[in-house]
Design brief:
Bound molecules: threonylcarbamoyladenylate, magnesium ion
Number of strands: 14
Helix content: 25-40%
Order of helices and strands: EHEEHEHHEEHEHEEEHEEEHEH
Number of helices: 9
Shape: globular
Length: 322
């Protein structure tokens, strides 16, 4: 049995102690549940890759209580400081140069000369990070390639015994992984869209932000090469009708699409067509419809605006499959 505890002072103390001892602890963030390890402990970091079945070329994000604590582990230029002031704590990861004397174990960044740093805003994550005197590397707490967990039950189902403790704070409010912004090149590049949009980033920086990694040149985010976010069931996008035995993932008013469907065969991301609500529901609802009796999961169109861009990114990855 995996230990799961509600977020209370004693549980947080226990979680901090387990991390210090090299164990893996799953904890809630505003985006998704993270699988945490002490970023200064090579064996602990290796345990993350093993637990997730994660390729060793895919770097991890280091989590900190605040930007001050992150300063010893990443080189902040003026742009990075401005963005940290504007968006931290919150769902933004900055990819920055790694200082030569960084105490972070090489395995955490997959040997790269850069590091992804993030200061989450979820009160449970903040309370945990306040208790430790080391950075916490934390990928999403799922097996590599499958859907990210937005509920503690997803963590247990995906990772089971590899986790020493799961801190339970219920559903994650944002529901999609953090925006990853690479600040190490000539132009800032969003490597992974999220709740913090390119427009919001550009407004703070006072210059344009590239929305997709350039097709040419070196690959800046190895994780993006890999298949991600895929349920076992096929996913069909932009659905305007339903084929036999397909499940429906609706957005807004499904009209005749949902007519006569049993409750097990459809979910609505947001009956009122609210994109933030849809983002928060996305992974849990995909998981609920991921059943062998469904020929596919048919997803109604989602507007490509605001956090809808990130929702569609995850859906396209899901549709590409394994
Ligand atoms: O919201 C989140 O970011 C969650 C929560 C737990 O904080 N974490 C998360 O981690 O989504 P993970 O490992 O599932 O995704 C991290 C992404 C991967 O695509 C990885 O390749 C990229 O960030 N990444 C991390 N460090 C990088 C670096 N130095 N350069 C380029 N990409 C990096
Ligand atoms: Mg992940």
């Amino acid at each position: 049995m995996v230990r799961m505890l509600p977020v209370e002072p004693a549980a947080l103390e226990e979680a901090a102690g387990l991390l210090a001892a090299g164990e893996l602890v799953a904890f809630p963030t505003e985006t998704v549940y993270g699988l945490g390890a002490n970023a200064l402990d090579d064996a602990a970091v290796a345990r993350i890759y093993a637990a997730k079945g994660r390729p060793g070329i895919n770097p991890l994000i280091a989590h900190f209580f605040d930007a001050d604590r992150a300063a010893a582990y990443a080189v902040f230029d003026a742009d990075a400081r401005r963005l940290a002031d504007a968006f931290w704590p919150g769902p933004l990861t900055l990819v920055l140069p790694r200082p030569p004397d960084s105490p972070l174990v090489d395995r955490a960044t997959a040997g790269l000369a850069t590091v992804g740093v993030r200061v989450p805003v979820h009160p449970a994550a903040r309370a945990l990070l306040a208790l430790v005197d080391f950075p916490v590397v934390a990928p999403s707490a799922n097996r590599s390639g499958s859907l990210s967990p937005t509920l503690p039950a997803h963590v247990v189902a995906s990772l089971g015994e590899a986790v020493a403790l799961v801190l339970d704070a219920g559903p994650c409010p944002v529901g999609l992984e953090s925006t990853v912004l690479d600040l190490t090149g000539d132009v800032p590049v969003v490597l992974r869209p999220g709740a913090v949009t390119p427009a919001a980033l550009a407004a703070v920086l006072g210059r344009p932000v590239l929305e997709t990694p350039p097709a040419e040149g070196p690959v800046r985010s190895p994780g993006l090469l890999l298949k991600h976010y895929a349920p076992d069931t096929r996913v069909r996008l932009e659905a305007r009708h339903l084929e036999a035995d397909e499940a429906l993932l609706a957005f807004g008013d499904p009209g005749p699409l949902a007519a006569g469907l049993p409750a097990t065969q459809w979910r609505n991301l947001s009956p009122g067509a609210d994109l933030a609500e849809a983002a928060a529901n996305l992974f849990a609802m995909l998981e609920e419809l991921d059943r062998p009796e469904h020929a596919a999961i048919a997803v109604m169109p989602i507007p490509e605006e605001g956090i809808g861009v990130a929702i569609n990114d995850r859906l396209r990855r899901a549709a590409r499959g394994r």
